[in-house]
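REQUEST ID: PR-0412
SUBMITTED BY: lab tech R.K.
PRIORITY: routine
TASK: structure prediction, single protein chain
INPUT:
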Amino acid sequence: MKKSIFVDGQSGTTGLKIHDYLKKYQELELIEIPYEKRRDPAERARCLNEADIVFLCLPDDASREAVSLITNDKTRVIDASTAFRAKEDWAYGIPELSKAHREAIRDGKRISNPGCYASAFTLAAFPLVHYNVMQPDYPVSIFGLTGYSGGGKALIEKYEANDGNNEYTKAPRPYALTLNHKHLPEMMMRSGITRCPVFLPVVCDYYKGMGVSIPIHTDLLQKKMSAKDIHELLSKHYDKEAFVKVMPYKDESCLYDGGLDVTACNDTNCAEIFVFGNEEKETALLLTRLDNLGKGASGAAIQNMNLMLGFDETFRLV
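STATUS: complete
OUTPUT:
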């Protein structure tokens, strides 16, 4: 019998992309809600309770409301908002982090799909804390570059407005300058760090693709390791993963004219982690690139669904 899937919030950037993925699945049955009834609580409640798995692609308050409308113990939820990402009783949707993470997703009823910045950061930082290399109160700083699609429909419209004098497209734009980005609680909880990072995100005039970097003074780490040692640790941790790859150390072929293309993982569900280092200066730089609409959002949601349904995680994603 086919499993039934419902996407609540299917007209947003993440919801549309999830729908594109789901169209490839002959093994699943999609529950559709008429456009004119998408805000009808009774109709939404019916669809939510009929589905085996629900994707929530909604603002935080609307996601909380949707969860409250589920009155059975059968429907499983993958939520793409920030509403539940720092909740202990919700499994966190990055299965590559550990065996326990993968099992919690596979067996869970409530899965919080990670944020794009948080995915890139946590993939690099979690192993360092987990293996006691980086102390939880290490003074972490984070720098992130992203395409404008990460801001959803409203920001896409602003960047793509052709009025002849678009201020958004003049130069890369640092934002969240109150130093209180909405991904910070998730980043801290899911990586294991206890001191709030200084996080500077920058949105740029290209559609999608993300690079998130973490500079490290290796002499300040709890366990003294060189950049090369850190590379070996991350390589071993993600050795058998299909969607997370640690790129070769000091390999110029991975660069473009000495720089890094943060869009190289676009249209995939892959994340690639780079480790750069200067042993003489006792410094290292971890940099993760991914598609903010792929492994940073919709692709990750589909990977988690595959795991929950007993499919291979790569099914319909490669």
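NOTES: The domain at 3-114+296-309 is CATH 3.40.50.720 (Rossmann fold).
REVIEWED BY: pending
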